[in-house]
Amino acid sequence: MRSVASLVLLLASCTACGAAAVGETVPFSTLGKGINSGIRESAQVVVRSQSEWVALWGRHMRTRTAPAPPPAVDFTTEMVVALFLGERPTGGYEIEVTQVERTDRGLAVRFRVKKPDPGAMLMQVLTQPFHLIELPRVDESLTFIAENPSR
To answer: Whose CA is closest to 34, among 131, 116, 102?
Structure first.
């Protein structure tokens, strides 16, 4: 009887731990953000290995004459999430990760897209907005949520 009570207590505590984690904000740091990328298509990429990181960084930096090496990431404890808005015809566009939080299925990555105001004076140049972040590694899936999908 004592072992059954211990098992029930253990299961209840594990369930409570999991429930407490849902909705928890996950800290992240920016590895790079800007408007010039070699990746011209819209993409949301999760990188969990050094080889994937080197390949993505190479594509991202391919238009630079003297590209910097990729920022160091310890993939045993960290991972990279990269958002690319795709090529845009002018300046004034941005993409930004605003929050990462735990869900019952993994992580939710919330992001915001900024478009130029109508009638604004803009640089007449092709841009490729991006935001690259580093955060604690999880092996669960990630969901990407646009905070302003109507804009």
So the answer is: 131
**What amino acid is encoded at 53 in this protein?**
W
CA 129 distance to own-chain centroid: 14
Span 100-150, pLDDT tens digits: 999 999 999 999 999 999 888 998 999 999 999 999 999 999 999 999 864
- Which residues, in sequence order, are CB contacts of 16 under 8 Å at separation 6+? none
CA distance 103 to 107: 5
Token pair recorded at residue 110? 């919330």
CB 112 within 8 A of CB 98: yes
Domain residue ranges in the chain: 25-146
* 47 and 56 Cβ atoms separated by less than 8 Å: yes
- pTM of the complete model: 0.83
Q: CB–CB of 137/77 below 8 Å? A: yes
Instruction: For residue 76, give Cα distances in angstroms to 5, 28, 32, 88, 150.
Output: 37, 16, 21, 35, 38
List the one residue out of 112, 110, 106 whose CA is nearest residue 94: 112
